[in-house]
Structures are given as C-alpha cells and as structure tokens.
Amino acid sequence: MLTRVNRVAISLVAAVLILQACIFETTHTDISNIPIPAWVVHEFDLPVEARCFRYDRMLFEDGRFVDHWQKGASVPDMSRFETQLWFYYRARRYIDLGFEAIHFGQVMLMDDNDSGHVHWRDMLERVRAYAKRHARRNFLLCDAHTSGVAVDGELLFDFHSFPLRTKDVIEKPQEVILVQGHLDSIYGKSLGGKTPSGWTCEHLPYLVELDNYGVKKPVSGGIPYYSWGWNEITWFASQPEDYRNHWLRYAWDWLRENDPNGWLKMPTQRCLAGHLERRKWYHANTQSPAAPDGFNQEKTIRQIWTEK
C-alpha cells in the first residue's frame, strides 16, 4: 500500500512531463499497520508518541459511508484530525518520490462535515508549503473529482476533473454522446475564481475521463450514470476498434466546440469492470508480441494530439 500508486497519469504540457499520483476517497483497515512518522507529528505540533494510523478515527462518526466500498473500506471524513494526518502523510510521500501533481478524488464525498472547507484548505496549504520547498520544481498541481470548490472566490484546486457522463442513444444500441446539462456533467459549469497560484478565470480548466467504477446491467440502455449498463471505460473497451477510434475524435472535437475549458484525458490505461473477455485492464497501446493485450488506440491518440 505504501509504494503502490493507485493511478498514474502522465500529462504533456509544453514538452514537460508531469507525473500525477492519487489519494482517493477511501481508507482501509490496513492503515492501522502503518506507523506515523515523526515528520507528520512535527508538522501538526503533536506530542511525540509511537503509534500507527487509526482507521476508526477517520470515519464519519454518525456511520455515514462506513464500509461504503466494501467491508473495512470506508470514505474518510476530512473533518477528522486523523484523516488530515493520513492525507498529508501520503501527499508528502508522493512528493518525495518525484510526483508533481496529486489527484484528491471525490472531495465533496469527504467534505460533509467540513463547513467552509476549513480542514481541506489547511491540509492542502500544508502540502503545497512542503512542495514549495521540496518538490522537483518547487510546485505541486492539485485537482479533485469536482466541478469546483472555492472559499470567498479562492479556488482550492489548480484544475478540476470529472467523468465524461455519457448519454445513451437509445435508438442506436451501444452508441453514446456528450450532452451539456446531462446529469451532473461539468460542461459549462467548472467554477472560476482565483487559483492557488494567483491567476483568475471565469471557468477553471478541467479534464474529463472515461471513468471506472461498477457495472449496473450490461447492454441495458438508459441507466443514469452508466454507459449501456457499463461504467464508461468498460463500455468503451467493449466497442469495436473503429468505433473506439472514432469516439475519441468525436469527444475531443465536441469539447473544443462546446466548452474549450475542458480537455479529454486519454484512456491510456484503466481497470475494467466485469473482466471484459477476461481482461482486467484496458491498455491503449498497439498490439504486439511484447504487448498482446493492447486495444490499438495508440496511433489515434498520437494523431489527435499532433493534428488538433
């Protein structure tokens, strides 16, 4: 758990590679086996004591979201002091490993007891202060699964991230489209304000992705938040190769035409639900003897990035 990066995204910005790690909206009983380092204790001015992180001290005290993901895996409450220690610990570990961006998951799911986002702000300020001194380029990009969180016009994150929220075309089985205003989609709604780095905007730039989560009822259309009964990436992986390539171009062009603040996060590697044809992962790379499980979107992604 200490060394595994749950998801790594590589962003290409002005020929500069930025590695992103993630701290998601989950905590597990296993963390009770991880000792709290002295540097966490010192950061929060705590009395020195030899102990491990406490899973039970991160949970919502009223029982909300306990065992939300599975038995012993719950949503942490950011208003709990133990949760703040845990997030700071993980963020600093990632920074020390050379990561320059961190995705913080479903921030609002962890924020129910954090009136005014006080504890989120404090934790992020501590993380950014450490990055300013110790990150590879003395800077850290922070984002979360949200259309925006701000206090007095000051944004908590450097950019936003959200699922694509596709809409099934019922009269065309397996086809999906993007529609502004569909469900809780982010299009046209990314909150603006003053960013942590000091510049202002009407709408903060954001990424949208083919998200991975559960499966509802495969091949059934019209189920909210599902693409023909699948999560978005499993639906995508189940399509013919030509349609996958077409759909990536469609989504890229749709964003440019309907909300240029948004950018398509290419699905280079994501886990699948339901083990599609016994595959547990989607890989965009071109199939070869060295990489036989590729889905062959590598060339299309390269073309989109170079031609658009």
Model description:
- With 308 residues, this protein is α/β, with parallel strands linked by helices.
- It is 24% helix and 18% strand.
- It is built from 6 helices and 17 strands.
- The strands form 6 sheets. A 7-stranded mixed β-sheet has the order 1-2-5-6-9-14-15.
- Strand 7 and strand 8 form a beta hairpin.
- The N terminus is likely disordered.
Rounded Rg: 20 Å
- Oligomeric description of these chains: single chain
Helix/strand structural class = alpha/beta
Number of strands: 17
Q: What is the overall silhouette?
A: globular
Please state roughly what percent of the residues sit in beta strands, choosing from under 5%, 5-15%, 15-25%, 25-35%, 35-45% or over 45%.
15-25%
Reported for the largest beta sheet, the result is:
7 strands, mixed
**Average pLDDT over all residues:** 93
Count of discrete alpha- or pi-helical segments spanning 4 or more residues: 6
Output the strand order for the largest sheet: 1-2-5-6-9-14-15
- Note the gap between the termini: 39 Å
**Helicity, in percent?**
10-25%
Order of secondary-structure elements? EEEHEHEHEEEEEEEEEHHEEEH
Residue runs with pLDDT of under 50 for 5 or more positions:
1-14
Topology:
Blueprint: E1 9-13, E2 16-22, E3 27-28, H1 38-43, E4 73-74, H2 81-96, E5 101-103, H3 118-134, E6 141-145, E7 150-151, E8 154-155, E9 159-163, E10 167-168, E11 176-177, E12 193-194, E13 200-201, E14 206-209, H4 232-237, H5 241-258, E15 262-264, E16 269-271, E17 281-283, H6 298-307
Parallel strand pairs: 2-5, 5-6, 6-9, 9-14, 14-15
Antiparallel strand pairs: 1-2, 3-4, 7-8, 10-11, 12-13, 16-17
